[in-house]
Amino acid sequence: MKWIRLALPVAAPAAPQAGAQENYHGRVATPSPPSAAAAPEVEWARRLLEGDASAFTPFVESIQHRVFQYTWLMCGQREDAEEVAQETLLKVFENFDQLQDPARVRAWVFRIAKNFCLMKRRRSVFAPERELSLDELLPGTEDVARSSQLEDRAELPDQRLLRAELNAELERALRELPDTYRSVVLLRDVEGLSTAETAEILDLSLDVVKQRLHRGRLALRKSLARYLGGNGEVKQK
Amino acid sequence: MTRHEHTHHSHGARDPRCLEIFARLSEYLDGELGEMDCRLIEEHIQDCKPCIDFVRSLRRSIEAAHTYHAEVEPPQLPPELESRLKQAWQEALRRRKSA
Question: Is residue A54's pLDDT more than 50?
């Protein structure tokens, strides 16, 4: 049936959590991007704990890149993002003996980064400032009508340009999210951490993470609809 | 989730049955719902154009988020900071061994 394809689970970023059930199709979502547990940082962290100096540079470069991407979108200012990323790196190595499980290194690092972001902002950027109501995030009839129109006029512009444009639109859309939702979407959908890891990093319950993730995704969808079209197809410019 | 009598109804973006589905779509797309909940969602959306469009656009948005990368590169680490990091790591290793 036509709808089965649409209903297939999106490539979820995180490994299935304990207790997660298989869905109707008898499978759980395929991780994409690679789940945090399978990230190369895990192996480098393990080697660093064993004293292998050859893992130092790749670990630093990878972690610095990931942390900076997070702080870049959470802090707002490049100068703050750089400062927080460097403070995070230093704290990571100062406390490296406290890393118990290399498989959880990214969650551990992001928890440190989150704390520095909080200090930088001098207020809880993760406390709800503005709740997004489901009602304001749902499609209107005009959204559906537009999606039908866009489906009929699909063309294939240059793919690389398209990806760059999409990335820029994504950054704009992510920045527009209220902080509370942006932090959850970044950790879950951009960084590929699990719901449980995200909850631990942000000191939230699983239910709150799920709720904020859903509303954050809905807001992202709505924001990107201007670019992707109401049905998610790339809009011809 | 309460089960509706599934009849062909006039679906619309604000149909209460659609709204109930919308509220759980992230969990559905993440494979976090049980079989019964998945079946209820699929039974509902099979003939519902607004729901199909909505699922499709939400999925595309999530997939797009997976591909995001900051265009701005982090600055190169100053040599003195790199030395501090290496020193901190070695001290941490020493503590770990002596613990």
Answer: yes
Cβ within 8 Å of residue A4, ≥6 positions away: A25, B42
Residue at A144 is within a domain: yes
Secondary structure in 3-state letters for A83-111: HHHHHHHHHHHHCHHHCCCHHHHHHHHHH
Count of structural domains within chain B: 1
Inter-chain CB pairs, A–B, below 8 Å = 213
**Is the Cβ–Cβ distance between A221 and B57 less than 8 Å?**
yes
Range of the domain at A155: 134-228
pLDDT at A236: 46
Q: What is the CATH number of the domain that holds A159?
A: 1.10.10.10
Interface test with B, best of A8, A24, A101, A195 (most B CBs within 10 A): A24
- pLDDT recorded at residue B45: 84
Condensed to tens digits (0 to 9), the pLDDT of residues A17-39 reads: 443 443 333 333 433 455 666 68
Q: What is the mean pLDDT of residues B53-82?
A: 91
Whether A31 is covered by a domain: the verdict is: no
Query: Which of A11, A78, A210 faces B72 most closely, judged by CB atoms?
Result: A78
Asked whether A96 and A108 are in contact (CB, 8 A), the reply is no
Q: Where are the alpha helices (DSSP H) in A50-205?
A: 56-75, 78-94, 105-121, 134-137, 141-151, 159-176, 179-185, 195-202
Residues 14-73 of A with CB under 8 A from B: 14, 16-17, 20-25, 27-29, 32-33, 48-49, 51, 56, 60, 64-65, 68-69, 72-73
Phi, psi of A167 (to 5 degrees): -65, -40
Q: What percent of chain B has pLDDT over 70?
A: 86
The vertex-A206 CA angle with A203 and A208, nearest 5°, equals 80
Structure tokens at A7: 């209903």
pLDDT number for residue B65: 94
pLDDT of res. B9: 46
